């Protein structure tokens, strides 16, 4: 029996190759995309779950009081030691001070140094860190990390730095300033962790204040964003028990000057991967959207299968009639059609898996992800695809199989497919309308995201974004020489020394006292040290007053318009010559700079204070003249390397830095465009199936109309009006859904576009065009068919 079924199925599929290939293509694409989406979701939902004590680990974060509350991921340096001393149910606590970028130098056999620029791979840690997280030691001694100037590195870095030679006992030099002895080698970190530091140096080394950047290890007066506090609770204690402890800490260990500036909070570590305020910014809504797109693709492919199967059923009337006349039961016919569906689904799943495996490396590159198809994921995918196969087989095959099994054998043997007049046609209309709706939601979403990105790329940031190259200043001793020599290069228009560019992902925020008031203002200011060329280099405009005078110390301030507005002053002129204290520096205000964006467009413009504090100049901004920049860039690199031979040269264009603000949006747009295109393509296959069904149903009607003088245009309208009605119905349903979803997404941005009528018009017209191109072939073929052949009954 089964062998007979298999022969019949393979013959059937071989005879109707177009039908089989269209279904395999549609299902294969949807399954392949769903597997990739499943892998991406699995990747993000399993971050740091491999730690055996993950369900007891928390991180201490804080809110900084401004005119509202500013969420901050870091914690003051003494937090961990104080928790160990004062909280009985804290088993372990550890501080980790990560650094964004370090230069690692290693002496080589040639008497020279190998230099490595390491991004987000270095951290100072307390030894208790290894009691909290699972970081297996391959060789060495963890206790040695209690001593200063020691470090652990991963196997990957040991191989990178020392090749096949032993790493233990070797010296690595950090930033040409601090020697660290390698006392252990760690197992390489998993790909699904947010804590990717591969060089872990001893916290004891930070007793040297020049290394810790002036932030005292026992000071509650501030924190760095990269300084994290990990806490391991004792077994049997709930996360909520930390809430009263944090409330007490906020009162007992306040900021030394502003008592209510910091409010401490304890957050479960596993939730921080999806926390945009205190964690790593992966929005769960993004994963939900991807999951919904995956379901849309699966359902769209199922709808296609149903539509094309019912259309194909008309050509199988005689086959069904003969089988019933020879004794086949409804159950046998039903399971034969289910088996056909199962074979197509199985082939489609194999094709989808192959596509997913081939596309996965490119997906990692496009999205800057690190999805790995390991044994665990293959096991999960095995269960996922098995469930998908069963679900798809019955979803896509149940209705067509049941419908064909119920054919009347007498009518079927006459070549007339008996289709129930009620329900069947309505179901197909519902399915196609749903496909149109899904396509329109994705088209509207892609249009809105494209519009927001275009707006961000072309918005007036308030400063000159192009033709500026930012260089690092490793050592302030030579920075004035660097500025002087760069200004002599042909093609260099201006050079400014500063803390950072006007817009940056990280800004130094601090409290402020205005006009000798005894209490600080209830908001923080963005402190930007700059030189006198800064305004000219970045084309920043003065609203009133004058520029800063040349100095290496803080003698006067500039502020921006938002600063003035927060003080509720009527005009910028009112603030001139008023005294402010920013941090430890007190000086008069001599000018007001027009507002510019100092964060991404998701955040409001901050109050900003500018001063000439030369010790905080870490960036050299070089404005290039119009024309070919290559010769000037080569001379800039040569000049920089001559002054800093022991450091690693790196440059970044200002417009590239601004582009990093849109990294998440660009990734989302790529996904939406790819999946929208695939969904539309799969939908086109479904339209083709429906068009084939309608042409088969109306074959004789078309023949009669043509015999009675109907024109080709009239025949095309006969088919076209059905699609137009379905498209309009789909639009009426899809437009509010898409507006709600995209409006919710745009609410994350302080500066955003509005969703206009043109977006919805584009969606509707695009869907009309897609439908016209897809069904046009079948409609034109029916309109041009010979009516004599159409009216023959035998």
Short description, anyone?
By secondary structure, the chain is α+β, with helices and mostly antiparallel strands. The strands form three sheets. Strands 14, 15, 16, 17, 18, 19, 20 and 21 form an eight-stranded mixed beta sheet that branches. A six-stranded mixed barrel has the order 3-4-9-6-8-7.
Describe it.
The chain is 47% helix and 18% strand. It has 22 helices and 23 strands. Strand 7 (171-174) and strand 8 (178-186) form a beta hairpin. The longest helix is centred in the middle third of the chain and has 38 residues, at 330-367. It starts with a helix and ends with a helix.
List the helices and strands and how they pair.
Layout: H1 2-15, H2 17-45, E1 57-65, E2 69-72, H3 79-86, E3 90-107, E4 113-125, H4 129-132, E5 137-140, E6 150-154, H5 155-162, E7 171-174, E8 178-186, E9 199-202, E10 227-233, H6 242-252, E11 262-268, H7 284-313, H8 317-325, H9 330-367, H10 375-405, H11 409-413, H12 424-458, E12 468-472, H13 479-487, E13 492-498, E14 509-510, E15 512-514, E16 525-529, H14 534-537, E17 542-545, E18 557-560, H15 561-566, E19 579-582, E20 585-593, E21 608-611, E22 619-624, H16 630-643, E23 651-653, H17 654-661, H18 663-697, H19 699-707, H20 712-746, H21 757-784, H22 787-791
Parallel strand pairs: 4-9, 6-8, 16-21, 18-20
Antiparallel strand pairs: 1-2, 1-10, 1-11, 3-4, 3-7, 3-10, 5-8, 6-9, 7-8, 12-22, 12-23, 13-22, 14-16, 15-19, 17-20, 18-21, 19-20
């Amino acid at each position: 029996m089964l062998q007979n079924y298999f022969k019949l199925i393979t013959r059937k599929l071989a005879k109707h190759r177009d039908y089989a290939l269209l279904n395999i293509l549609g299902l294969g694409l949807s399954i392949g995309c769903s597997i990739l989406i499943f892998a991406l979701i699995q990747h993000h939902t399993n971050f740091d779950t491999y730690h055996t004590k993950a369900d007891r680990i928390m991180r201490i974060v804080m809110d900084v009081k401004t005119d509202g509350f500013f969420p901050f991921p870091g914690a003051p340096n003494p937090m961990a030691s104080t928790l160990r001393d004062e909280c009985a149910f804290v088993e372990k606590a550890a501080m980790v001070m990560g650094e964004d970028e370090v230069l690692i130098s290693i002496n080589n056999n040639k008497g020279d140094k190998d230099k490595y620029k390491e991004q987000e791979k270095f951290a100072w840690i307390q030894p208790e860190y290894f009691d909290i997280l699972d970081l297996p030691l391959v060789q060495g001694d963890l206790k040695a990390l209690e001593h200063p100037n020691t470090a652990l590195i991963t196997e990957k870095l040991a191989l990178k730095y020392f090749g096949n030679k032993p790493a233990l006992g070797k010296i690595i030099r950090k930033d040409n300033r601090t020697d660290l002895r390698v006392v252990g080698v760690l197992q390489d970190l998993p790909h699904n962790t947010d804590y990717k530091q591969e060089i872990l140096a001893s916290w004891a080394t930070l007793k040297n204040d020049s290394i810790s950047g002036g932030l005292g290890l026992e000071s509650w007066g501030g924190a760095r964003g990269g300084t994290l506090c990990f806490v391991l609770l004792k077994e049997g204690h709930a996360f909520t028990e930390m809430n009263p402890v944090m409330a007490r800490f906020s009162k007992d260990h306040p900021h030394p000057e502003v008592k209510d500036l910091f409010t401490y909070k304890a957050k479960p570590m596993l939730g921080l991967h999806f926390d945009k305020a205190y964690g790593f910014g992966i929005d769960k809504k993004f994963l939900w959207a991807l999951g919904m797109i995956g379901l849309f693709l699966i359902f769209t492919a199922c709808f296609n299968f149903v539509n094309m199967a019912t259309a194909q059923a008309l050509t199988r009337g005689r086959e069904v009639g003969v089988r019933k006349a020879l004794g086949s039961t409804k159950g046998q016919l039903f399971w034969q059609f289910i088996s056909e569906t199962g074979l197509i689904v199985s082939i489609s799943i194999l094709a989808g898996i192959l596509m997913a495996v081939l596309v996965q490396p490119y997906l990692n590159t496009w999205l800057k992800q690190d999805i790995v198809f390991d044994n665990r994921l293959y096991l999960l995918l095995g269960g996922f695809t098995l469930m998908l196969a069963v679900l798809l087989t019955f979803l896509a095959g149940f209705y067509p199989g049941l419908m064909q099994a119920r054919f009347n054998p007498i009518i079927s043997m006459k070549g007339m497919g008996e289709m129930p007049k009620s329900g069947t046609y309505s179901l197909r209309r519902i399915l196609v309308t749903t496909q149109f709706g899904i396509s329109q939601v994705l088209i509207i979403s892609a249009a809105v995201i494209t519009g927001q990105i275009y707006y961000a790329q072309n918005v007036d940031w308030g400063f000159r974004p192009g033709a500026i190259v930012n260089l690092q200043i490793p050592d302030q001793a030579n920075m004035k020489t660097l500025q002087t020599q760069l200004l002599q290069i042909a093609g260099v228009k201006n050079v400014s020394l500063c803390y950072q560019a006007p817009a940056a992902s990280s800004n130094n925020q601090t409290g402020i006292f205005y006009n000798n008031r005894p209490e600080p203002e209830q908001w923080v200011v963005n402190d930007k040290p700059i030189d006198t060329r800064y305004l000219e280099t970045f084309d920043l405009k003065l609203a009133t007053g004058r520029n800063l005078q040349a100095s290496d110390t803080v003698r006067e301030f500039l502020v921006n318009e938002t600063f003035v507005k927060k003080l509720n002053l009527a005009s910028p002129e009112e603030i001139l010559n008023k005294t402010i204290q920013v941090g430890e520096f007190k000086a008069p205000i001599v000018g007001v700079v027009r507002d510019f964006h100092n964060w991404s467009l998701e955040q409001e413009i901050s109050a900003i204070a500018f001063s000439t504090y030369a010790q905080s100049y870490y960036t050299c901004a070089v404005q290039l003249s119009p024309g070919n920049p290559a010769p000037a860039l080569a001379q800039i690199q040569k000049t920089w390397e001559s002054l800093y031979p022991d450091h690693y040269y790196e440059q970044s264009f200002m417009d590239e830095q601004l582009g990093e603000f849109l990294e998440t949006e660009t990734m989302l747009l790529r996904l939406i465009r790819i999946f929208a295109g695939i969904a539309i393509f799969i939908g086109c296959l479904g339209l083709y199936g429906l068009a084939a069904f309608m042409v088969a149903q109306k074959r004789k009607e078309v023949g009669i109309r043509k015999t009675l003088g109907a024109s080709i245009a009239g025949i095309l309208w006969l088919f076209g009006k059905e699609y137009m009605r379905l498209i309009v119905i789909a639009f009426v349903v899809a437009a509010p859904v898409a507006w709600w979803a995209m409006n919710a997404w745009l609410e994350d941005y302080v500066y955003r576009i509005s969703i206009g009528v043109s977006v919805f018009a584009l969606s509707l017209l695009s869907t009309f065009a897609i439908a016209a191109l897809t069904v046009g072939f079948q409609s034109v073929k029916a309109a041009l068919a010979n009516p004599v052949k159409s009216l023959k009954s035998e």
